[in-house]
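Crash report, auto-generated. Payload:
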Amino acid sequence: MTSMTTTGKATTVEQGVKLIRHIHATAIDLPEFMDRIEVLTTDPRLTREILETAKSRGIIDVNSDNTVVFQRAMRDPRLNSITHKEGEYTCKRCGSSLVNGYFIGEQNEIGPFGPECVRKLTDVTLKQPAEG
Ligand SMILES: [Zn+2]
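Recovered output after restart:
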C-alpha cells in the first residue's frame, strides 16, 4: 500500500509550509519560490496549495509583480532547525551523493540535502568541515 492518501497530501503541504518558514530571504521571485517548493512535490496542484496555505497563514505575501515577500514576524525561531547526520545519503534536490546529510525541521522531516542545496533552499550558509 503505497498509494497517495489525503494524509500524505496534508503532510506534504505542512512540510512545504515548514520549508517556507526556514527561508531566510526577505523576498524572492515567484518562479524561484516554486522551484524551492518543488523539492517536496512536482504536482502543480500541491505546490499551489502550499503557496495558498502559507499565504492564508500570513507567512508570505505575493505582490502584484509576482514577488513573494516573507513575513519576518511569522517566523518561529524554534522552527529554525537544520541538523546533519553522517551517513550515505542522496541529496533530495540535486541527486548528488553525500557523506553528510542535512535535514530541515525539528523532526528532520525534510531532506536529506547537501550543504549547497540547503543554502539554495533556505539562504542559510552552513558551517561545515572541508570536503570534496
Ligand atoms: Zn544537492
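Post-recovery validation: Helices lie at 6-21, 30-37, 44-56, 115-122.
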